[in-house]
Amino acid sequence: MAKGNRVSSILFLSCATLLSITRAASFNVLSFGAKPDGRTDSTQPFLKAWASACRSIQPATVYVPRGRYLIKAAVFKGPCRNRITVKIDGTLVAPDNYWALGNSGYWLLFIQVSRLSVIGGTLDAKGAGFWACRQSGKNCPVGARSITFNWVNDGLISGLTSINSQLMHVVVNSCKDVKVQNVRIVAPDLSPNTDGIHVQGSTGVTVTGSSIKTGDDCISIGPGTRNLWMEKIQCGPGHGVSIGSLGRDFNEDGVQNVTLTNSVFTGADNGLRIKAWARPTTAFVSNINFRNIIMKNVDNPIIIDQNYCPNNQGCPRQTSGVKINQVTYQNIRGTSTTQVAVIFDCSPSNPCRGIRLHDIKLTYLNRKAQSFCKNIGGTTKGVIIPESCL
Ligand SMILES: *[C@@H]1O[C@H](CO)[C@@H](O)[C@H](O)[C@H]1NC(C)=O
């Protein structure tokens, strides 16, 4: 009997050991001294919880319970030893004084991590003071993006709410295979440069099921973006889904294979926009698909602008070198608040090529909408309203 007991207790022990090895480790920020009172600086406790999770041999979770946590600029650095999840039930708030984040460029920066998930949570960057500073033309800091993934492979941002970022809300830069899903972004219509989601230098990013109301682009797509999929996006107010501005620099990478589908724009300044500087460049745009889109009172539902040159500085009498090729607009319907609902203003030195319009129906109040074409070639299929100028 005694022997049998020993055998079963050994068995039990080894099972327990096995369990603890395979079970994910959890690191609660409260155990590292974070205070959910919205006033105590919890930056160091968050970084310590991250460091422990990142060192874990088992898959690890940094857990942020309900409550408000005051967080200053923080860099969550990899590589980590295993899969890592940041599960947030609380709200992260930035300091009231915008200078506290303002010189860092980033508020929450995740860098060089593979298999990273950020789940849930609310980020309140309290951007209003920073915007007011910029609008008053005073001496202001450079500002901070709210959450950035830099060199993240196999990443996920899910169920996040971001409000009032100083600059861009969510940035995916130099990443591979990142999913952004069910995020909610909110900032006032007139807040400057508060893009909702910015993707750049990244391959295989998907953005789905997200609602974006902000003062700049809902989604902005920068150089070096490849295989981007966007679906079920609600945009507006905001400046639309924008490829560009591209071609600011001479040596610049292009954007290719981008799809936006099943999305709605409401009261946005632009819908589907491609924007290029009137400067020589190696940048290009190719294989872009806009499909099944509803426009509700959008100023410029469809626009290609290759003459971007804010304040007419830096591009005197130049034309855009960005080569725009194979862009399809299919099943785009709804209302424009301006008469020219479709604008294709392409470069005289690099005309747009392979533009396809397929079943477009955009109206302007109760009157006829119009199209504008310059330096463009393409084809149409199905019903096209306003009448095509291709
Ligand atoms: C284009 O991107 C999608 C993802 O959005 C991907 O599934 C597809 O393979 C890509 N096509 C090419 C030719 O790379």
Could you please describe the fold and organization of this structure?
The protein is mainly beta and 390 residues long. It has a single domain (85-385), classed as Single-stranded right-handed beta-helix, Pectin lyase-like (Pectate Lyase C-like), CATH 2.160.20. 12% of the residues lie in helices and 52% in strands. The chain has helices at 2-22, 43-55, 99-102, 128-136, and strands spanning 25-28, 37-41, 60-64, 68-70, 74-77, 84-93, 106-124, 145-158, 161-163, 170-173, 176-181, 184-186, 197-200, 206-213, 219-221, 225-235, 241-246, 255-266, 270-277, 284-298, 300-308, 323-336, 340-345, 352-364, 370-374, 376-385. A six-stranded parallel barrel has the order 7-8-11-14-12-9. Helix 3 links the parallel strand 6 (84-93) and strand 7. 2-acetamido-2-deoxy-beta-D-glucopyranose binds next to strand 16 and strand 18.
**Bound small-molecule species:** 2-acetamido-2-deoxy-beta-D-glucopyranose
Describe the sheet with the most strands. Answer: 6 strands, parallel, barrel
Structural class: mainly beta
Q: Based on CA inertia axes, which overall geometry fits?
A: elongated
CATH class placement:
Mainly Beta
CATH topology: Pectate Lyase C-like
Fraction of residues in H or I helices: 10-25%
Look at the structure and give the mean pLDDT. 94
Portion in strands: over 45%
Order of helices and strands: HEEHEEEEHEHEEEEEEEEEEEEEEEEEEE
Family: Belongs to the glycosyl hydrolase 28 family.
Organism: Coffea arabica (Arabian coffee)
Subcellular location: Secreted, Cell wall
GO biological process, one term: carbohydrate metabolic process
